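Model it.
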Amino acid sequence: MRTPKIYFIGAGPGETALITVKGFSAVQHADCIIYDGLVNPSLLDHANPDAERISVAKRSGCHSMEQEQINALLVEKARQYKMVVRLKGGDPCLFGRAAEEISACIEAGIAFEIVPGVTAGLAAAEYAGIFLTNRDYASSVCLVTGHQAQGKDGDEPDWKWLARFNGSLVIYMGMETIGQITQKLLASGKPAQTPACVICRAVSPRQRVVKAPLSGIADLCKAEGLEAPAIIIIGTAAQGMNRADWFMQNRLFGKRVLLTRDAAGNRVFAEKFAACGAEPVLFDSIDIIDLTDSSFVSECLRNLSSYDWIIFTSANGITRTLDRLHKSGLDARAFASTRIACIGRPTADKLAEYGLKADFVPCSFTSEAMAAEMIAAFDLRDQKILLLRSQVAPKDIVRAFTNAGAQVTDASVYNVVARRQEAESVNAICQDLEAGRIDYVIFTSDSTACAFINSVPQGLLRPGRPQIVSIGPATTRSLERMGLAPDIEASVHTLDGILDALQERS
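Modeled.
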């Protein structure tokens, strides 16, 4: 029997990809996750759907739960579940009060493990092109909290020592007291012209960086309206290196991009945009409905060996088909005597995840190209072709193969339906669009276009602002029929093709 254990995990500085592999695995397998306000909530999308999720977000002056209550909660949940994850922003043991929580575990006899994380001070500096150590000007780093514990004597930093410190000072939780901090350093002898830098909302598309001499940094932050969370860096390193601020130089940095796919697809797409510095705004416009339990599809899957060609037009079709096969006790060997074609390299890549290699992928990733290129490359007369795809897919490809003499079976393994929308989420998107806070709206299919446009008031999308982006010709035609000619169409009709097209325009 597994011993109950609490995992104290550093979630990193906000970017989900910066959590450690071990930490991510624990999030996936946890029975209960207790998380802080600085944790990126999208990390929870990767958790077990049945896991209990408890927010214990705290902000200065606005505590949803006192520390003693959090300690008690951890012990309570450890006695209720086998695996509890305590998810903290940055590193769990750096200014995160983990010692108090671990002490509670020790007193209660609860087993625990610490999984380190990327602390905000290091991440903020590196995402702003600042090198905290450099052989020319800084051989040491000092991490300091700007928020002292209340009621504890002797907790005040030694400002005289810090003023003499020649390395890089990195101050956490100091925005509310930045004026006092700088004055104490100046009064203790720190030169007024010492370089200083404040990085607000680090490692996010809303990251802002301001630099000034130590004597003026507090006034500049006030003038610029900078607020917590932020990291303060003081010392020669704060000047940064010319052209080293790589993150904010991303072509899509700060762009707000509205994604309109299904929930799972939106989250995959969101990670790609976030990696490019953009801020994804998710609007789950459609739902994917599995149809593989129908008697017709089941019969097709039992007789895969009777077909000469099996064609997948999307990753969704592959996922539904292979998952149903596995549930039926079959595996990749069911495809041994047939050839497989996929529309698009991403679809072929999804197939490869199941240990299968596509025999044919068209040069252009459309159904029209698939039919034309296969007809040109192969003699399809009397060939049996099985299409495993969406119920709402156009019939052009069926007609093309039939005209070429093939015997076509069109099996719907999933359906796409418009998602029922909450009024609150629709209103939020409408307000963003009205206020011009969305730079791009992305459409990846006729279904997403129709579902989204039917969810928002007519005329809300205007030419050029925001810019409308289409994944390819079929989606473009649908948008044009609705009176919305896209501003951008991806030349390569994939998610990566959309990213490339936007970066070329930016």
